[in-house]
Amino acid sequence: GGGETRVRVERMFGLMDRFLKSDPSSLQKDILDHVEYTVARSRFSFDDFEAYQALAHSVRDRLIERWHDTQIHFKKKDPKRIYFLSLEFLMGRSLSNSVINLGIRDQYADALKELGFEFEVLAEQEGDAALGNGGLARLSACQMDSLATMDYPAWGYGLRYQYGLFRQVILDGYQHEQPDYWLNFGNPWEIERVHVTYPVKFYGTVEDENFNGGKRKVWLPGEMVEAVAYDNPIPGHGTRNTITLRLWAAKPSDQIDMESYNTGDYINAVVNRQRAETISSVLYPDDRSYQGKELRLKQQYFFVSASLQDIIRRFKDSHSSFDDFPEKVALQLNDTHPSLAIAEVMRVLVDEEHLDWNRAWGIVCKIFSFTTHTVLPEGLEKVPVDLLESLLPRHLQIIYDINFDYIEELKKKIGLDYDRLSRMSIVEDGAVKSIRMANLAVVCSHTVNGVSRVHSELLKTRVFKDFYELWPHKFDYKTNGVTQRRWIVVSNPSLSALISKWLGTEAWIRDVDLLAGLQEQAANVDLHEEWRMVRKVNKMRLAEYIEAMSGIKVSVSAMFDVQIKRIHEYKRQLLNILGIIHRYDCIKNMEKSDRTKVVPRVCIIGGKAAPGYEIAKKIIKLCNAVAEKINNDPDVGDLLKLVFIPDYNVSVAELVIPGADLSQHISTAGHEASGTGNMKFLMNGCLLLATEDGSTAEIIEEIGEDNMFLFGAKMHEVPALRVKGPALKVPLQFASVVRMVRDGYFGFQDYFESLCDKVEGGNDFYLLGYDFQSYLEAQAAADKAFVDQEKWTRMSILSTAGSGRFSSDRTIEEYAEKTWGIEPCKCPF
Ligand code: CRA
């Protein structure tokens, strides 16, 4: 058995020799061995990509050692575990992050140098793991890094999509989507666990069966699919702890459908089985709309069912009574996407483990916590009852039963207020009868978290008002955060070194509050000089990228003004573009002699539009059309450039953020639940031009209004402004820039018409016209500040110094203590 093997191995090799060495010559030998035996190339002839593969495998070996030790340690200690269920994880690249967290980046760089390779060049060979859309998915990735670093006994569970988020290609200024078949060249960062598989059932019927003198429900499924685990080790920084992100892939079930095989149609029987794999084939590319699609629901249940079988199996390995379940298991629902887990736990406990309903319900009420990431009630998922009934007939029954008990209880508390009862019901009786997944999650979770303070206020006063009044204690918020490991140390190594030098320690990498120590130095001229130098080098790196990608030459002395995020009407990239048109128009109409007073700008916009989101796609086209005009206008030269960066993703962000002087977070107040891009820019010393929306309100508290450029209607003003509609006063400049677009100044007159209609004639839902004046004023203030480089640099240092609160380490600690009730479980070195 395992014990005996262990003794034998230790006798053969000695205990200490068990660990792989990380001195440069051991690393070199390892890399060359992997070139020869893993990549199967000659060690005397291999290219950069093959070198990357060998390097990645060498790092993987070291990850696996720590990961094994961590799993053994968790098993021995048996602490309460947190299971983070999320349909999306946006991990990006793994190489640099892994070696930095393992503390062996420099050793690898040295080892490679002697072999004639440069670490950075090889790191560029890696593609992004883009198994998610935007903020929510990258948040999950940041939180995994924090969970590992802070030694929490955590598992992430998700889906291993074969096609990640589509690749964006710009042709003639239009977005085109191309499939991201990211596994084509293999993935060294995952470990396929062919023996960790579970059957997942779909369709079929529910029958009554006699049991112990009573009746019980039995689900006779119509389809079975196998879930296979792929483990992605997530290393902590400065700790041996390495946790697991377990992603499920769908494979045809081993349980063969004898019927079709016996009919002689062998080929079709095999081809039909292959269809099972489609469940985990593609990520849905819309980040905020839900359409009740069967495949999407299948994905949700597939990953929930496999994850829960795994979690319950692990629990039963060392526990005999489910009464201990809440002491050992916390389940986190990342948005409503995994909320079928609630019905699934009930089903397993009642139908398979034969607990009585009330006992199972008591357990369910103690284990789930739910975080919602949206502000729109319309944005919440609804599943048509017909669809659920056909795909998961037993789950529909269970949800009805939960709802029945709950509504009965509710009547006792609030009386027969039928309007309110129907609003609060899990079942919606509309034209299409459906299940409200958010209501299910709120009713059955012990805690409902928002993602910023402002968001939480909206949840309590609007989205979940009825629930808040009933259960105020359930509602809380944990302001989002991002990991400084990825967003400073990995992506901005020179700033990272500078910070460590001036703080006299690297401890801020694990204890980010120490960044506040930079405040005292904010006026130090030596720091200023070094700070500007680092920023300049980062801008040069970005300028090179821009030129390589678009042919546009930009000057690094210009202000780099960046807006990168998903394209959405509420995020108001259109406001940014209209502002750029206004700036262009001003330059054109100026006396030549006045042009010297203009602060040169490079405006950078990047982001993907959901493939079916027409208006968002028009915004991308408009950006490119305006860029075409401005960048080729000799009157303008270096005073203004506009660049659309295609295929925005995590690694593009890692390059762009450190090189930005100014970044825009300009959503209409009350629409961005939190936002996390603002936090990444803040950490990197980039100044923010922003509305007081989402987490920005909290950033203001940390760095003060004077350290950023705020503008726009406040959240409480927005509803009244909308009521005014056509009567709203809109500045002349706004009308005139929209007119330029309408009149075909940038071409494509017909195509842009509907875009213009969206912001004029009382249709301006996102208040671009209303906010235009104050937007221009904020931009003017930014220009003015930029001219005073000393002031700008001080503001930049204070931004980094004030960013500590926005680390995901803080977010995770709050979740651990207040919501999940878990404690660190540190693996000994
Ligand atoms: N689109 C919110 O809109 C928030 C992230 C992470 C979002 C952002 O404001 O920062 O979540 N919502 O909490 C979301 O995905 C399903 O809802 C987002 O990324």
CATH architecture of the largest domain: 3-Layer(aba) Sandwich
Heteromolecules bound:
ligand CRA
Strand order of the largest sheet: 7-10-11-4-1-12-13-17-18
Tell me the overall shape.
Answer: globular
- Describe the largest sheet: 9 strands, mixed
Low-confidence stretches: none
Count of individual helical segments:
33
CATH superfamily of the largest domain: Glycogen Phosphorylase B
Estimated radius of gyration: 28 Å
Percent of sequence in beta strands: 15-25%
Helix content: 40-55%
Q: Tell me the name of the CATH class of the largest domain.
A: Alpha Beta
- CA(first)-CA(last) distance: 25 Å
Describe the fold and architecture.
With 829 residues, the protein is an alpha/beta fold. The chain has two domains: 368 residues, Glycogen Phosphorylase B (Rossmann fold), CATH 3.40.50; 314 residues, 3-Layer(aba) Sandwich (Rossmann fold), CATH 3.40.50. Helix content is 48%, strand content 17%. It has 33 helices and 24 strands. The strands form six sheets. It has a nine-stranded mixed β-sheet. It has a six-stranded parallel β-sheet with strand order 21-20-19-22-23-24, with helices on both faces. Strand 5 and strand 6 form a beta hairpin. The protein starts with a helix and ends in a 9-residue tail after the last helix. Bound molecules: ligand CRA. The site of ligand CRA has 17 residues, from helix 7. One of its GO terms (molecular function) is glycogen phosphorylase activity. Belongs to the glycogen phosphorylase family. Keywords: Allosteric enzyme, Carbohydrate metabolism, Glycosyltransferase, Pyridoxal phosphate, Transferase. It catalyses: [(1->4)-alpha-D-glucosyl](n) + phosphate = [(1->4)-alpha-D-glucosyl](n-1) + alpha-D-glucose 1-phosphate. This is Alpha-1,4 glucan phosphorylase.
